[in-house]
Amino acid sequence: xxxxxxxxxxxxxxxxxxxxxxxxxxxxxxxxxxxxxxxxxxxxxxxxxxxxxxxxxxxxxxxxxxxxxxxxxxxxxxxxxxxxxxxxxxxxxxxxxxxxxxxxxxxxxxxxxxxxxxxxxxxxxxxxxxxxxxxxxxxxxxxxxxxxxxxxxxxxxxxxxxxxxxxxxxxxxxxxxxxxxxxxxxxxxxxxxxxxxxxxxxxxxxxxxxxxxxxxxxxxxxxxxxxxxxxxxxxxxxxxxxxxxxxxxxxxxxxxxxxxxxxxxxxxxxxxxxxxxxxxxxxxxxxxxxxxxxxxxxxxxxxxxxxxxxxxxxxxxxxxxxxxxxxxxxxxxxxxxxxxxxxxxxxxxxxxxxxxxxxxxxxxxxxxxxxxxxxxxxxxxxxxxxxxxxxxxxxxxxxxxxxxx
Amino acid sequence: xxxxxxxxxxxxxxxxxxxxxxxxxxxxxxxxxxxxxxxxxxxxxxxxxxxxxxxxxxxxxxxxxxxxxxxxxxxxxxxxxxxxxxxxxxxxxxxxxxxxxxxxxxxxxxxxxxxxxxxxxxxxxxxxxxxxxxxxxxxxxxxxxxxxxxxxxxxxxxxxxxxxxxxxxxxxxxxxxxxxxxxxxxxxxxxxxxxxxxxxxxxxxxxxxxxxxxxxxxxxxxxxxxxxxxxxxxxxxxxxxxxxxxxxxxxxxxxxxxxxxxxxxxxxxxxxxxxxxxxxxxxxxxxxxxxxxxxxxxxxxxxxxxxxxxxxxxxxxxxxxxxxxxxxxxxxxxxxxxxxxxxxxxxxxxxxxxxxxxxxxxxxxxxxxxxxxxxxxxxxxxxxxxxxxxxxxxxxxxxxxxxxxxxxxxxxxxxxxxxxxxxxxxxxxxxxxxxxxxxxx
Lengths: 405, 441
What we know:
The complex is a heterodimer.
Chain A: H1 6-9, H2 11-39, H3 42-58, H4 60-64, E1 73-75, E2 80-82, H5 108-113, H6 116-119, H7 122-125, H8 134-137, H9 151-156, H10 167-174, H11 184-195, E3 203-204, E4 207-208, H12 237-246, H13 248-251, H14 264-276, H15 298-309, H16 313-317, H17 344-352, H18 356-361, H19 365-374, H20 379-404
Antiparallel strand pairs in A: 1-2, 3-4
Chain B: H1 2-15, H2 23-32, E1 42-44, H3 45-48, H4 50-53, H5 56-77, H6 85-94, H7 99-126, H8 140-163, H9 168-181, H10 188-196, H11 203-234, H12 239-247, H13 272-275, H14 281-284, E2 285-287, H15 288-313, H16 338-347, E3 349-351, E4 354-356, H17 358-380, H18 397-420
Antiparallel strand pairs in B: 1-2, 3-4
Helix pairs in contact in B: 5-7, 5-15, 6-7, 7-8, 7-15, 8-11, 8-17, 16-17, 16-18
């Protein structure tokens, strides 16, 4: 390494300086590219186009009110953030019913019973709510298993009813309904389940025979769990189920499931039905037919009936029974807060030093508050009450005498 | 004036944790400071050479810095909970400004770091750089072992990071990994339980991997890295310097003003100290600043640019959310463990009544043996001082060949596992298409 001059020795340094400069320029270019990419996302184009649509139809002023930037519906109960409305901004916009997607108003009736803030978008439509570009959002991208159940898929599978695929999602909540408005395809499939007697061999929704496999959570299976060796065409669970309903033996040689000769439409409907049978993690209030209530026993129901129609019906109707029993008329207080009204005639006199008539017409204390705010009674009603309470007192006295004897 | 003195004293109190009693004490403190001595004053041109070191160590350090910086930002955005992990990664991908870039950079830098640290080890072996030269007090075999520790930590960091997105890829890679760990004799199940914090891959495993990934393992890496660098200085620099020293003859040098000499050194040019300079400084070395620092800056910039470009080209994948009920086909370990998974597959042989436990052989015994061999070899290596710090020294031909064969075998098996193993772990040639896996709709 004998260098003749200092310049020769530091030749590499000059090269290094050049390389550093080149690297610096490259770094700037890369930074520029990333910034450009950040500033020009796909959704900005849709938003600006929507703004034009609104400006043209409703004027610039309305267009100025459209929110800009990423939009999302966050439903905490469903752990869901749907960013669909970033592009589909017209969803709740009146007057664009005849527009084309994504600048189209959502059918209003269904949104009324299924508000956006409670259901989001993907609960019904599927697709990838997290995503902010069309391909990923519609879920036709790698590693997303629940694509948009819409027009594209219906056309691909030649499903007659445009909304048929989506009904799989309706049935996540409406699973135990016998029939649901707007779910024609699933309704038809449910009808077939009863008509063809599927429960003879299969457990469906928790009851049925054990000859065939339990189908309660059939929709929970993954595509890997099916053999596609004999399936013609596109390998999907939907194709498998459809083909299997049409001719079980063709797919599973050793099966004893009979061929019911389903039409294509019926086979598809049944395929969608079984695919909807999932282990859904839904808050209980989302399920229309939920049993999240206290069912009264027969005894409790009989008692309620008795009180409603018995001699003390007046006190039940006017809700006096919430606090007071009227024992001689068969009225039992829901909460034993006040004294038994069967003894009211005597009781009022001893407690307040006034007659029952006087007290009920001009009550004091708690009863003053109750009768003036919560349970207002007309003068006639008060008179009726006094009359009935006197009767009750007579009965009570008789009861007591009978006991003594 | 007194006020100024007080102010100076206060400033010193605030900036010095310890107030030196004298200038000498202060000087000693500087001499002992490892941070101030990361670089020597002068550096030989041999150590600067691209061909010799390829700057693989520097590149791995830069990658580590990229990982720390992106990782710290990711910590603000990622939620280590089973319910939220996946959606927080989805948010990074779609709605966090530059979130996709952060994640992609972190992933690419991690993959590159595994590769570069491995190549760095290969370089050190093939240049015999783990051997001591002539300089006094060098202990390169120790630094080789520290380096092995850094390689293991790199693998563990990458492995613990693998679980965090909580997607199918993560879940099943960790399943494969921890199942291999459980094949260890006697304590296998205990090890798996310890790794996962339970019997299942769930919240406990996630938080365990997360804490290891963001705190303990990086801390260990920082500690080992500082030790690694400190040892390089203590060992007399890169091994190539020892090679250069061999070619140098003692040369008479005139004392210069800028240096301190012993009294003997300046008595009329006869001192040993002055004559026997190790490296002929004027001929072969250049000032570290700016020559070395500029080089390092160049390598840093280059590494960053390559990482960013790769991050743009290869977007970090995110599979479906983790689902313990559905095994993806094929289920693979992280790519750098696929050579082991390949060996596990090959060495699982049913022999009549018994089956040879491939997981034990490929997953436990083989890696343990390889690590032990690597630790032991520098002490056993018979090659002489002439083969220190030189590529493919003739004297080391045999061991280099064996080492290259082992490396090739790791690389080939990794490639087979990564690219040629398809569904059901069947072998597919590159020109053969994998069967398309069915989908729901």
